[in-house]
Amino acid sequence: MTPKLRVALCALVVSLPLDQLSKILVDRNLGYADRVPIIEGFFYLTHVRNPGAAFGLFADSEGPARLVFFIAVSLVAIAIILSFFRQLAPGDRMSALALGMILGGATGNLVDRVTRGEVVDFLHFRLWGGYSWPDFNLADSFIVVGVALLMLDLLASEGEERASPQPDRPKA
Fold it and tell me: 48 has which bridge partners?
């Protein structure tokens, strides 16, 4: 097993069960639309359902068509993630970790759509000025952290390329 595969599988094996377990706990312990303050005025555990995409996009679209669309989009996204993974060098652990986390998050939300018809969200933050960030879940968090890691890895590798000495070029 290559180092990249080992790291990606570890990320997937951690992220997907954590996401699903957290949603099961929310289902079992919070009634729909309940909100439990963890840090009053800032962080709450909630129980909401999102039939749409990020930030509730397309939530008001027709049910069966919306569900088929989001399942198809999730499957395409997973195929793209796997395609990117295949392109990684065997020792590229950082990108493998990032893609494993993204895959775990995408799969977690896909499992929700297939089993529940919508995604369970439960993390709610209130920011300055009374603004409430849209509710999200661990799958969403794994996706965001994975994308951030990919960006950091890209920036770091670009910086390394610029910093490495270039071979002398003949002067014209």
Answer: 121
Question: Choosing from 135, 140, 153, 168, which is the catalytic residue?
Answer: 140
The Cα–Cα gap between 156 and 134 comes to 31
Phi, psi of 164 (to 5 degrees): -70, 145
Enumerate the domain spans of the chain.
3-161
Residue 43's region, left for phi above 0, alpha for psi from -120 to 50, else beta, is beta
Which of 112, 121, 135, 168 is the catalytic position? Answer: 121
Q: How long is the chain?
A: 172
Q: pTM (2 decimals)? A: 0.85
- Packing angle of the helix pair 3-29, 93-116 (nearest 10 deg): 30
* pLDDT averaged over 10-residue windows placed end to end, the chain, 172 residues: 94 98 96 94 94 62 77 93 94 95 97 93 91 94 97 82 62 59
What's the whole-number average pLDDT of the chain? 89
121 is catalytic: yes
pLDDT value at residue 60: 60
Q: Quick check: is 19 catalytic?
A: no
Q: What is the largest CA-CA distance in the chain?
A: 75
